[in-house]
Amino acid sequence: MTSRHVAIVGAGPAGLFAAERIASAGHRVTVFDRMPSPARKLLMAGRGGLNLTHSEPLPVFLDRYRDARPWLEAAVATFGPSALQAWAASLGQPCFIGSSGRVFPEAMKASPLVRAWLKRLDGLGVALRMRYRLLELPGSGHLRLDTPEGERFVGADAVLLALGGGSWARLGSDGAWTRWSGLSPASLAPLAAANCGFRMQSTTGFPARYAGTPIKPVAVAFENERVRGELVVTRFGSSAGETGVGDGECGLEGGAIYALSGPIRRAIERDGRAVIRLDLRPGMSEAALCERLARLRPRESLSNALRKALRLPPVAVALLREAGVPDRAPAALAALLKAVPVVLVAPGPLDRAISTAGGLRREALDPGFMLRDRPGVFAAGEMLDWEAPTGGYLLQGCFATGLAAADGLLDWLRAGLNPPR
Ligand SMILES: Cc1cc2nc3c(=O)[nH]c(=O)nc-3n(C[C@H](O)[C@H](O)[C@H](O)COP(=O)(O)OP(=O)(O)OC[C@H]3O[C@@H](n4cnc5c(N)ncnc54)[C@H](O)[C@@H]3O)c2cc1C
């Protein structure tokens, strides 16, 4: 096959992985990105320990994509957790499996991986054009870009978009592409916060002084799921642009609620609220709690008594008060401690979310990740309408769809459906 010119927009993991594949197949690849340097979100992800993927069995892993599983299954099965680890090792970044089953590079950070990766891409002849912002796609093989030298039109034999979602806009992916005039509204699910905090409804005015206070250990139950982990009380500002309504400014965020953020968000969209249940002593049975509570002295204040008997911190007592303590009868109190209801009324702001739900819908793309109404334009990564919890599923999904879209693009070029330019 003759070598062609492929334009990739978005130098995050999905775009760069597609670039590696397409350049390895012998094509000339240019990657455009609006930021001054590539892979900013990936580098940020590495700050707290880069969780590349997860070691659980593939069928369990695939279930984390929930409704999007049928869509992503082939891509993740083709380029799965072991392949991603082997790829990282090929860049001099071997991985290890943490006690939770999560997989990290031994260096923990993303920077050594990104450095080695950019060197490899350079060796493959991939050209990186930074500070190039894609304004729109006037025709299938054309890009209108805002560049340091002013506005430019660029032509390419095929285009791959990997523009990311809409959170942490300062790292590059600002979701502006969702407002392009050429995109049919039907092809797009509105962007929404995923792996995010939620505003609580407060009847008593939940004390703002608890903002930043962790709640652990804790288990969060919602619908038929229960996640054990950690929460932190957070305070959402009331500035313009922050989504959501709510009586108070306080909310909850943290791993235990992130994992349930999809079902919680959908319940709020449907019913205007979602009631989660917190187990404030997940390591103790209700019977054991009841036994401890039976020893409380009736004269003592509830906070003091709970602190002494169960080492329950003041923030947990504030949550109990919010729920309305029924009485001090040990059985009733024990039952409440195992399932404190908390009413959530809105997701936190999209920009503060770890990831984004919504984006290009499955129906808008063919099985090779090509936009059905834009022959020769492919899409991958977080800009597609899927979501997953933290735990490595996000990056795995971005790498896997980056590869699948690159393969779709290569097949399309091979089929010769576009005349050589
Ligand atoms: C704080 C934080 C920690 C995270 N930690 C983890 C983790 O440990 N494990 C995990 O699996 N996931 C993690 N994630 C999520 C993960 O980083 C993202 O899912 C992933 O980076 C998305 O990859 P992407 O290539 O689709 O998009 P991005 O990485 O967002 O890249 C998109 C690129 O497109 C560019 N772009 C956007 N619009 C335009 C335009 N119009 N023109 C030109 N360029 C444009 C942007 O500048 C950006 O460089 C974390 C996210 C955050 C915010």
Automatic annotation (TrEMBL):
Residue ranges of domain RsdA/BaiN/AoA(So)-like insert in the record: 250-355
Cofactor: FAD
SUPFAM superfamilies documented for this protein: FAD/NAD(P)-binding domain, HI0933 insert domain-like
Matching InterPro entries: BaiN-like, BaiN-like_dom_sf, FAD/NAD-bd_sf, Flavoprotein_PP4765, RsdA/BaiN/AoA(So)-like_dom, RsdA/BaiN/AoA(So)_Rossmann
Taxonomic superkingdom: Bacteria
Keywords: FAD, Flavoprotein
Domain RsdA/BaiN/AoA(So)-like Rossmann fold-like residue range list: 5-407
Keyword rRNA-binding set for record: no
Pfam families: HI0933_like, HI0933_like_1st
KW Flavoprotein (keyword) present: yes
Protein name: TIGR03862 family flavoprotein
